[in-house]
Amino acid sequence: MKKLPQDLSLLLHQAGQLPDLAEKAELLTNLDHAVKQMLSGPVTEQLKVANLRQGILIIETTTAAWAARINFQKSALLARLQAETLPMLTSIEVKVNPGLAMYTPISRNNTNQLSETAAAHINALAEHTEGSLGQKLKRLAALASRKRQS
Question: Looking at the Swiss-Prot or TrEMBL record, what is one Pfam family this protein matches (predicted)?
Answer without folding.
Answer: DciA
